Amino acid sequence: MNFALGFKPLLGETNTMDSLEKQLICPICLEMFTKPVVILPCQHNLCRKCANDVFQASNPLWQSRGSTSVSTGGRFRCPSCRHEVVLDRHGVYGLQRNLLVENIIDIYKQESTRPIHPKSEQQLMCEEHDEEKINIYCLTCETPTCSMCKVFGAHKDCEVAPLQNIYKRQKTELSDGIAMLVAGNDRIQALISQLEEICRTIEENGRRQKQHLCDKFDALYAILEERKKELVVSISREQDEKLGHVRSLIRRHGDHLEGAVKLVEAAIQSMEEPQMAVFLQSTKEVLKKITDTAKASSIERTEPGYESMSHFIINTDDVADMLRSIDFQAAFNSTGVCAVAGYQGEDGDEGYTLEEGNEDLTSQPSLEGESGRH
C-alpha cells in the first residue's frame, strides 16, 4: 500500500506559501518549528524539544542538565538523513540555534493570512485512490489503508479496524515498551554500579589480605633467623672450646718435645767424651734427666671422635612439611558461605573478625584479619 503525506488546501493560500510552509515543518512533530530551533551538523533542523526527545530515546541513561552527576554526552541519528549526531555533556542544549529559520518563521506568521496548518489537518493520502484519506488499518496485512482499498482494492477480504483505534493501541504499547526498556536500563545501570563497587571492594580486600599475609611470613622469617643465630652461637661456642683444648695440648706436647730434643743433643755430646772419669761424671746428670723425661712423657690424647661436630644436627623435615602445608583456613556459616577467618591473638586466644565493607552488595562478607592458623 502506497501513501503520501498531504495537506487539505485552504482557500486563499498560494503555492509559494504552501512550499514555504512545508520547508518549515519539523520532521518529528510534523508541526511548524517552535523556538528555539536547533541546527544539526548535517544542516537539518529540529525543534529543540523534538531533538531532545529523540536524544533521550536513544540515550535513556543520559543524565539531564539538572542532575548533579557529570554526563559524558551521547549520540543519536538525524531523522531526516540518518547522519549520526554526537553531543557533548550539554546534550541537545549544546547544539547551535538556527536564528535564520526562527526569523523566517516569525516573518511567515506575520505575513500569513491564515492560521498555520494544525497537526490534525495533515492527512496521509492514498496513492491508488485519489483524494482518499488513509483512515483504516488492515489487521491482516498490518498496514494502513483507505476505505476504497477495503471495499474494492487489495484489502477487500482482510480484517480492518479504525486507524485511530490501532494508532492509540500501538502508541500505548510503544509507550509501555519504552517505559519497560527505560526501567530495565535503570536496573542494569544500578547493577553495573553495584558490580563496580564490588570490584573496588575486592581490590581493597585483596590488598589488605596480601599485606596481612606478607606480615605473617615476615614474622616467620624473623623467628627462623633468630633461631638460626642461636644455634650457630651454640656450635661456635663448642667449636671454640674444643679448639682451645686441642691447641693447649699442642703447646704442652711441643714444649715436652723441645726439651727432649735438647736432652738428646746433650746425651750425644756425652757419648763423645773420651775420658772415662769425665764421661761418668757428665752422664750421671744426663741419665737422671732422661729418666725424669721418660717418666713425664705420658702423652695426653683427645678422646676418639673428639673432633666430631655431628651432634649439632637438626631435622627440619617436619617443619618443612608444615611450612609447605600452610594454606588459608576459614570457617563457614550455616549457608556454606565463608563468613569469618580464624586468627591467633597476642594472648594466645583464638578470635574471629568480620569483613567491614559493602555487605549489602554481595550478601557475602569478605574475609578480614588472619587467613588461617597453622
Automatic annotation (TrEMBL):
<protein>
    <recommendedName>
        <fullName>Tripartite motif-containing protein 54</fullName>
        <ecNumber>2.3.2.27</ecNumber>
    </recommendedName>
</protein>
<dbReference type="GO" id="GO:0005737">
    <property type="term" value="C:cytoplasm"/>
</dbReference>
<dbReference type="InterPro" id="IPR017903">
    <property type="entry name" value="COS_domain"/>
</dbReference>
<keyword id="KW-0206">Cytoskeleton</keyword>
<comment type="function">
    <text>May bind and stabilize microtubules during myotubes formation.</text>
</comment>
<dbReference type="Pfam" id="PF13445">
    <property type="entry name" value="zf-RING_UBOX"/>
</dbReference>
<dbReference type="InterPro" id="IPR027370">
    <property type="entry name" value="Znf-RING_euk"/>
</dbReference>
<keyword id="KW-0217">Developmental protein</keyword>
<dbReference type="GO" id="GO:0030154">
    <property type="term" value="P:cell differentiation"/>
</dbReference>
<dbReference type="InterPro" id="IPR042752">
    <property type="entry name" value="TRIM54_RING-HC"/>
</dbReference>
<dbReference type="GO" id="GO:0008270">
    <property type="term" value="F:zinc ion binding"/>
</dbReference>
<dbReference type="InterPro" id="IPR033492">
    <property type="entry name" value="Trim54_Bbox2_Zfn"/>
</dbReference>
<keyword id="KW-0175">Coiled coil</keyword>
<keyword id="KW-0493">Microtubule</keyword>
<keyword id="KW-0479">Metal-binding</keyword>
<dbReference type="InterPro" id="IPR013083">
    <property type="entry name" value="Znf_RING/FYVE/PHD"/>
</dbReference>
<keyword id="KW-0514">Muscle protein</keyword>
<feature type="domain" description="RING-type">
    <location>
        <begin position="26"/>
        <end position="82"/>
    </location>
</feature>
<keyword id="KW-0862">Zinc</keyword>
<dbReference type="InterPro" id="IPR000315">
    <property type="entry name" value="Znf_B-box"/>
</dbReference>
<dbReference type="InterPro" id="IPR050617">
    <property type="entry name" value="E3_ligase_FN3/SPRY"/>
</dbReference>
<dbReference type="GO" id="GO:0061630">
    <property type="term" value="F:ubiquitin protein ligase activity"/>
</dbReference>
<feature type="region of interest" description="Disordered">
    <location>
        <begin position="348"/>
        <end position="374"/>
    </location>
</feature>
<feature type="compositionally biased region" description="Acidic residues">
    <location>
        <begin position="348"/>
        <end position="359"/>
    </location>
</feature>
<feature type="domain" description="COS">
    <location>
        <begin position="271"/>
        <end position="329"/>
    </location>
</feature>
<dbReference type="InterPro" id="IPR017907">
    <property type="entry name" value="Znf_RING_CS"/>
</dbReference>
<keyword id="KW-0808">Transferase</keyword>
<dbReference type="Pfam" id="PF00643">
    <property type="entry name" value="zf-B_box"/>
</dbReference>
<dbReference type="GO" id="GO:0005634">
    <property type="term" value="C:nucleus"/>
</dbReference>
<keyword id="KW-0539">Nucleus</keyword>
<keyword id="KW-0963">Cytoplasm</keyword>
<feature type="domain" description="B box-type">
    <location>
        <begin position="121"/>
        <end position="163"/>
    </location>
</feature>
<keyword id="KW-0221">Differentiation</keyword>
<feature type="coiled-coil region">
    <location>
        <begin position="185"/>
        <end position="241"/>
    </location>
</feature>
<dbReference type="GO" id="GO:0005874">
    <property type="term" value="C:microtubule"/>
</dbReference>
<dbReference type="InterPro" id="IPR001841">
    <property type="entry name" value="Znf_RING"/>
</dbReference>
<dbReference type="GO" id="GO:0070507">
    <property type="term" value="P:regulation of microtubule cytoskeleton organization"/>
</dbReference>
<keyword id="KW-0863">Zinc-finger</keyword>
